[in-house]
């Protein structure tokens, strides 16, 4: 970690290098905060300039040299200056000496921390730029700049730009580089946010977290537990940036540290406006616009960590109480104000309103912040909010994979009739994998009709998970039509029916049910918090089985995905990663799909009821890539853990097994596994999934086993992909039909399916020696160019293996090199070259040299 790679800044690096090598430009000065990466960027920009083309002079000013004449440029000055020369003469002598050393080469000055240059050095830089030298320099924001340097951009001689913090993506990439491996998505997101785009602070943060044991490696990923070890080096680095503070400015910094974002008007009421102004001028806080309001935030997230840690307990409690009072008096009008006030009340010891705490806990739960939900729900329970607080606390513990603790909370809660019974069954089922929990609920006979509806709704959801489809449907329909059913009970029942509609091939019906289930969320979050889980699961299932790529993208770009990845919700994070892998795989981006599914494996490792689910997906993706070793090992892990898995998603397991067999070359076994799975899906009424499994048979070369049933399913299974999949199944030996379908599939984003359809066209045309094979090969090559590694049986059939020599000869021939020239280059006889070409033509199914180029593009590199 001591020597870390240069990450990101591609645009800035390119700009600096362009300035350095462009005769029409004279320089670029970058300003930025300490540690933001100015020095490293400057070094990288000139490191590639060859010494024989440019005279590059590197200098780094510092405090020690700022008081010495020419101290800032001592590293580059010519030796033995003449005695008795005036300051102006010395400047002239130095400039002439540097130009003499450069000869015909352009001079490039790379000056780091130019704000620390002594006056003579600054004057020399100014003179050299005026005499056609190029300046690349860095300045620290908010520091005084020597007049000759400032004059360079005020007079238009060089450009001046502010270096922005690293982007979130670049911060995550740097994080992975620092720890030497992939970082779990939620952890990466939170650490990158805390680093604030400052590479130096991010590095110190990571080093402190690794040394303190807060950042550890498990299941192939680094994971942060959310705590921060305030190492001395990190604290000193922040102290150096903050500097000494007056009491008033310290109060401003502390208020913002505990309350950000703080409304500017509220901050001006709580602190002296002059101190607020000073804090902003010193770069400690920043004022940002939020619609019609102005908010104050810290200039860097780590300032808050250090300030909060060092603030005495009594003062921190006073500040928190002050913030709570200010926002409450202002009306708490913003969406997050209730949650913020509750947390401040809790941390300041002034929380007495159990209802306030419970409402805030429900908001935290809606944001998938399980740690905060637990804190607030526990406090609400202790403040007398009753059973609802205990149930919400138990649900948060369940989602954090602490089912035993959740049961302890429920057992200690006041007896609340069927609510506790259903909550306990939910924890036992999803937390401990006890599938008999559904049978336990079936035996419960409440006297109250509303409680009966609640019990039956939860029973329906659990029955669905174990594959008791008819029972789940019957119960859910009964709840939806029960006059006494509450809104949350009906919502959960509608989720069950939405699941069944999605799996059955009615996406429009499923969407309508989900819309109705999601209405009035505030009512059911307190009364039946498990509904949040059911709703997200049903939405994910719908977009997955209907191959709804835009729908998946909508979920991944919605607030939920960001919250699930960053809020400590392991299942939610894994669920999002599985959706990411699904979308990436359909688009042929199998590298991205594999990374996402690895994230899912790590996130779901502790979620017992879904043990193995992500590994089944990983096996499928690996098989599609032709990586049998990875597919087999992933399948073995999944099979070993599948004892706790629920029965609803059996088709995904069977597809994983089938594709792993196909990857090994055992297509017969794969076909039998898929055929059996399709029969079971038909019996269960899961027609959308049945269609996908039957399409797998088409992809494996057995449309005869699928086309008839798929044609029948097209009458009932909705979704934009269905007609295309069916047309592919019935295309038979019509190469032109395969080619048309491939184009349409590609246009919808289904690049894997498009590639296989195009491969079918190539295979048909080649076998008939049809000249349309050239167009088919070109299309297939274009589709594969958008994909990462992809080696399915359909593609392998048109991707024969060439020997190294055959490949060499074929590539030269495809480039237009004549046989005699090929023979001379490869030290072969012309007859041998022709023999190689004939074997290549036969293997690739092409008629001559003009068809070689697209055919070769089909082959793996």
The CATH superfamily label of the largest domain reads: Tetratricopeptide repeat domain
Strand content: 5-15%
Gyration radius (Cα, Å) is: 33 Å
How would the global form be characterised?
A: flat
Give average pLDDT, whole number: 84
The largest sheet has its strands arranged as 2-3-4-1-5
Portion of residues within helices: 55-70%
CA-to-CA gap between the ends?
34 Å
In CATH, the topology of the largest domain is named Serine Threonine Protein Phosphatase 5, Tetratricopeptide repeat
SSE class: mainly alpha
Provide structural commentary.
The protein is flat, with a radius of gyration of 33 Å. A hairpin with a 2-residue loop joins strand 6 (215-218) and strand 7 (221-224). It is mainly α and 861 residues long. It is 64% helix and 6% strand. The longest helix has 18 residues, at 487-504. The strands form 3 sheets. Strands 2-3-4-1-5 form a 5-stranded parallel β-sheet, with helices on both faces. It contains 46 helices and 10 strands. It folds into 5 domains: 10-162, Rossmann fold (3-Layer(aba) Sandwich), CATH 3.40.50.300; 168-227, no CATH class; 435-546, no CATH class; 566-793, Tetratricopeptide repeat domain (Serine Threonine Protein Phosphatase 5, Tetratricopeptide repeat, Alpha Horseshoe); 800-857, Winged helix-like DNA-binding domain superfamily/Winged helix DNA-binding domain (Arc Repressor Mutant, subunit A, Orthogonal Bundle).
